[in-house]
Write a structure and sequence with these properties.
This protein is an all-alpha fold. It is 63% helix and 1% strand. The protein is built from 19 helices and 2 strands. The longest helix has 31 residues. The N terminus is likely disordered.
Length: 454
């Protein structure tokens, strides 16, 4: 069976490349158009207490827009209230996506999107061409703001009594925005370690970043077809609804078992708090970036589980990153299909086309190559062990934001490497690969010949 694409991975790609602007270039350019001015803005004295160098500002802005959450300075103490508001705005842009925000701005000023812009926005949101883009974006914005508002209200019950009305509401709003957009920025120096046994804070934030991590495509499908039963849902939605709780449960059990007797993590907690902490780290590892225990004290097996969860990541078209749950699922099912000597990849009585399978495998291969290059580069610039370098690079690539302690000690070249990794992680490795490879559509089919593998 041969697959001869007519238009490439992105819609209208051939026509755009004739004009010198392919979709990958547009995506990268729109990201940089927001990033660079934001970095310059954060260097202004009004936004930080002691000032911020351009490299630190670039790192922070990249981390916020890519909704990663890694920080080279303490967010809570280093930034002024104005600086924290800027970070909230950048996290919101990063979570909703540049194409969504661009469409919103054009609609606000009464301008129409071109066909190319509409195609890009619909693909970024995982929707078909016939979808009413204006109505879709309005629904997404409303859902995000309502979810963040509910999160802020619930969190205010904890932090208003603790910090007062004004500061408590701001803490609640900041963490609600950060959680829903899977950004991982916290105003507390120890992230959420001070609330490790607080069900209200832990469950509220968990629901926010799990909801954001499902993806807007899933939310839209649930709203449209959820009442019609599970069978009427899209295949992608079914994958996410089954894989998300499965990964959450498996991660919770692993963290609980592996860290149960570790006195520096779960060992010192009560039985109930142990489960709460294990649950939160399992949920947070898949791109949220918060931690309620000291990750630098995790055992090596637990760190490995966390690395695997970070790599898997959240759902496509979500506020989270990683390789994506559906990508890993398709690759795993395709492998099982090959081992069983079956011809077609089938899930829930639906056949997955080989182009989708090939794309999933390409994402994994390209991502693995980029991660290897980034790790090697960082080991040349930093005096750190391989385990810390691997953890930090994967955290940046998957836009998770969890740290094993290396980020705060990065050299200037190391910070720049991590900035590049975060950008690639957010825009997608295939976007970069397509931009560098300059793909050409070909309808020529050559004779087949076997190659010895395995």
């Amino acid at each position: 069976m041969s697959y001869l694409p007519k238009r490439g991975l992105y819609p209208l790609q051939h026509n755009n490349e004739e004009k010198g602007w392919s979709e990958p270039k547009i995506i990268l350019s729109s990201f940089l158009a927001i990033l660079l001015p934001s970095a310059l803005l954060l260097t202004l004295p009004v936004f930080s207490v002691t000032g911020l160098s351009f490299m630190d500002a670039l790192f922070t802005a990249t981390s916020a827009i890519s909704v990663t959450g890694l920080g080279v300075v303490d967010t809570g103490t280093h930034f002024t209230t104005s600086g924290k508001i800027v970070l909230m705005f950048l996290m919101q842009i990063g979570g909703l996506g540049q194409m969504t925000l661009s469409a919103v701005l054009l609609y606000i000023f009464g301008l129409r999107l071109s066909l190319r812009q509409q195609a890009l926005a619909k693909e970024a949101l995982g929707q078909e061409k016939k979808v009413n883009l204006r109505k879709l974006i309005k629904g997404i914005i409303c859902f995000a703001l309502i979810a963040e508002l509910i999160g802020m209200i619930v969190l205010s019950f904890r932090w208003v009594p603790e910090f007062g009305i004004a500061e408590g509401l701001f803490y609640a709003a900041f963490h609600s925005v950060s959680a829903f957009n899977n950004a991982g920025f916290s105003l507390f120096s120890d992230s959420l370690m001070g609330y490790v046994g607080d069900p209200l804070v832990i469950f509220t934030l968990s629901l926010l970043f799990i909801g954001g991590g499902l993806g807007f495509t899933v939310i839209v499908d649930l709203v449209k077809n959820g009442s019609k039963g599970f069978k009427r849902l899209q295949l992608h939605t079914k994958i996410m609804l089954i894989a998300t709780p499965t990964l959450l449960l498996v991660g919770t059990l692993f963290f609980y078992i592996l860290e149960y007797q570790n006195p520096n993590t779960l060992g010192a907690l009560s039985s109930g708090d142990k489960w709460l902490a294990a649950f939160f780290q399992s949920a947070s590892a898949r791109t949220a970036g918060f931690n309620s225990v000291d990750l630098t004290q995790f055992t090596q097996p637990a760190l490995l589980i966390m690395i695997i969860l970070m790599l898997i990541g959240a759902g496509s078209t979500s506020t989270g990153g990683g390789l994506k749950v559906s990508t890993i699922t398709v690759a795993a099912v395709a492998t099982w299909t090959f081992l069983r000597q079956k011809k077609n990849v089938v899930m829930f009585k639906r056949t997955i086309g080989w182009p989708i399978v090939t794309k999933s495998l390409a994402i994994i291969v390209v991502s693995g190559s980029l991660l290897a290059i980034a790790m090697f580069s960082l080991m040349l610039t930093e005096k750190a062990g391989f385990d810390k370098v691997m953890f930090e690079v994967i955290s940046a690539f998957a836009t998770v934001g969890l740290t094993a302690g290396l980020t705060a000690e990065l050299s200037e070249p190391g910070k720049f490497i991590m900035v590049i990794v975060m950008i690639i992680g957010r825009i997608g490795p295939l976007t970069l690969a397509y931009m560098l490879a300059r793909p050409e559509v070909s309808r020529v089919k050559y004779p087949e010949e076997n190659v010895l593998t395995g």
